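Incident log, structure service

09:12 report received: a user says their structure output differs between two submissions of the same chain.
09:20 pulled the input from the user's history:
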Amino acid sequence: MKIIATLTVVLLLLAGIAYAKDYEVNKKVGGYDVEVKIDKNPPVTGDNTITIEIKDESGKYVTDAKVRVDYSMPAMPGMPPMNYKEDAVLDGSAYRAVMNLSMSGPWNIAVKIRKDGKTNTVRFNIDAR
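09:34 re-ran on a clean worker, output below:
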């Protein structure tokens, strides 16, 4: 009986890991509601797909913006800062890009939304594992 209980707990833990929710950030910027999701939670060293949904004040998806993801790791002793940029591509009603985080540790993310000559930026930090 003890073995069955232990196996049940292990299976439930593995199921929870397999269905972990995406890393998610929701912010308002420049009249837009912006939802950013990263497909891994926590983000990991290597490729991480980032999805950005932008809605205007009326709740309609914004699909005519230029969206760029800037991600960087600050300088550390014996290591210069790392700075990367990826253009996000419209896929349905969301923009997608792949961030390749070259090492574990703290990363600064800036999602830049350019529309009608104005740029709005959503900033947040992640800790890659």
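09:41 both user submissions now match this output. Likely a transient worker issue. Closing.
09:42 reviewer note: The chain is about 15% helix and 55% strand. The chain has a mean pLDDT of 90.
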